[in-house]
Design a protein that fits this description.
This protein has 151 residues and is an all-alpha fold. The chain has a domain at 10-113. It is built from 3 helices and no strands. The protein has helices at residues 3-6, 10-67, 74-149. The longest helix is centred in the C-terminal third of the chain and has 76 residues, at 74-149.
Length: 151
């Protein structure tokens, strides 16, 4: 082995040192990347577990909605409830329509009674005037006869 082969030149040493420093830096970056991959793997596993639990919950809810939980399904119960509400709405509509008709009839009867009362008041006034018309000559005749008697 010659002395030139055992020893490296100064530029070669610098290059080797730079290469070693670059390898060390790359090694540190790769180790950091591996740590992040492991952490992300743990996070992904946790996320998969959560997602799996969520999927089971949604599946269970879907089964309860469609098939029921020992009773009629919720969809069937909601449909029955909608039907009952519609029937109740129809009954209430008919009831309110009947109430309107009764109120209109009562209003018409009140108007007729008021008109009848006014007609009766007019007849009473007319009767009083006729009575007064008949009584005035009778009173005058009486007064005249009393005066004639005492004279």
């Amino acid at each position: 082995m010659s002395s030139s082969e055992g020893k490296h030149s100064k530029p070669d040493n610098q290059l080797i040192q730079q290469l070693a420093a670059g390898l060390q830096s790359t090694s540190a970056l790769i180790q950091g990347l591996l740590r992040e991959i492991r952490e992300n793997s743990l996070g992904m596993a946790s996320f998969e577990g959560e997602l799996s639990g969520l999927q089971r919950t949604v599946t269970s809810l879907n089964r309860v909605l469609q098939e029921g939980d020992g009773k009629a399904s919720i969809l069937t119960r909601v449909a029955l409830l909608e039907s009952d509400c519609k029937q109740l709405s129809n009954v209430m509509g008919d009831f309110l329509e009947g109430q309107k008709k009764e109120a209109q009839k009562a209003r018409e009867e009140r108007v007729a009674l008021i008109k009848l009362e006014k007609d009766n008041q007019v007849k009473v006034r007319l009767g009083k005037m006729q009575l007064a018309g008949l009584m005035v000559p009778a009173i005058l005749a009486f007064v005249v006869s009393v005066i004639a008697y005492f004279r």
